[in-house]
Amino acid sequence: MKRLFLDANVIFSAAISAQGRCQAFFDLARQGHCQLLTSPHAITESERNLMAKYPQHLSRYREQLFPLLVLVPEASFEKVEWAMTMGLPLKDAPILASAVTAGADYLVTGDKQHFSLLYGKIVGATEILDPQTALSRLL
């Protein structure tokens, strides 16, 4: 079973669209086809954005999506510093660091601005993918 680390933007997108591509990860996890990992850092960011932009979707997020997420510990400061050497800003480095530390097969992120140069690359043992590519790999 593949272990997917979801960035905050993937969680956020799934929360606001029950039919979107990002929702499919949760459907697949519910069916036992994958395990969804994330970190407290990603949860805080996704919840903050939901509260600010789409508070009407918080209950769906909390009741249907959050229970399917496995929270992994935040990566060490040294690992975050290492992730910054990959060209990531401080706000995104903890995502890569936590995904690699948790041993995720894929880091799934829609953040093209900061992660696009890493798409398709394997860092540690974790491959960084956009949601569409990750979904096609699972299917």
Summarize the model shown.
With 139 residues, this protein is α/β, with parallel strands linked by helices. It is built from 8 helices and 6 strands. A hairpin with a 2-residue loop joins strand 5 (122-123) and strand 6 (126-129).
Structure description:
It contains 8 helices and 6 strands, in the order βααβααβααβαββα. The chain has 139 residues and is of the alpha/beta class. The protein has a 6-stranded mixed β-sheet, with helices on both faces. It is globular. The two termini are 12 Å apart.
Neighbour order of strands in the largest sheet: 3-2-1-4-6-5
Mean pLDDT: 97
What is the helix tally? 8
The amount of helix comes to 40-55%
Please describe the structure with a list of short key phrases separated by commas or semicolons.
single chain; alpha/beta; six-stranded mixed beta sheet; 8 helices
